[in-house]
Write a structure and sequence with these properties.
globular
């Protein structure tokens, strides 16, 4: 099943080129979440075969990720707060909780956005609380792009070097995700200590 999906993505990306990468990464980052590895790994493999420029493929992937994240961000800006205030009580979300989340993102949105882009099953949705809190747009775009760039580059290089070996790609991805999560825990701990130290000054 996975091989069939990968072949379809390879064919689609191959026919649509860099625009195909942009569109699929936009969808992956917004309202139609699916694993970004089934886009960028095949793109890296096509680059290995000389059918794509790896740098342009990476740029298209990052640009698509940012565009999808901005779509969610502005969706949350326009409808998020009204929706949560109206329906949040059915999910035990109080208006005070919404206010606390907004304050948190105003102060710590940069680290949250960057980290969120690197966590599976979170990267697609981290834009919503950022938009809800009306996080500074430049800061949001910068840290979203940085997080997306790391992930896109990793996937593209995996495709470039071992894209024709599905089992090896899956194995490497498990190790890479584990390393990323451990690194984020370390960064989070360092950030927490830094904030506490600043509060005591």
């Amino acid at each position: 099943m996975f091989a069939d999906i990968v072949n379809f993505i390879v064919d689609t990306v191959g026919s649509l080129g860099y625009i195909g990468i942009f569109i699929m990464m936009f969808l992956e980052s917004s309202f139609f979440p699916f694993p970004s590895e089934i886009v960028m790994v095949p793109a890296g493999y096509l680059a290995y075969k000389g059918e794509m420029n790896i740098y342009i493929a990476i740029f298209a992937g990052i640009a698509g990720s940012l565009a999808g994240a901005l779509f969610n961000y502005f969706l949350a800006v326009k409808y998020g707060r009204k929706f949560l205030i109206k329906y949040g009580r059915y999910f035990f979300i109080k208006e005070e909780t919404i206010a606390k989340m907004e304050e948190f993102f105003k102060s710590h949105g940069h680290i949250s956005t960057f980290s969120g882009r690197l966590i599976p099953a979170v990267r697609q949705y981290i834009s919503f609380p950022a938009g809800l809190a009306r996080m500074n747009l430049f800061t949001f775009s910068l840290y979203t792009s940085l997080g997306a760039a790391i992930w896109v580059i990793i996937l593209t290089l995996l495709g470039y070097f071992i894209g024709d070996n599905e089992a090896l790609v899956k194995e490497y991805l498990r190790y890479i995700i584990a390393v990323i999560l451990i690194s984020l825990v370390v960064i989070g701990f360092w950030y927490y200590k830094k904030i506490n130290k600043q509060k005591k000054i």
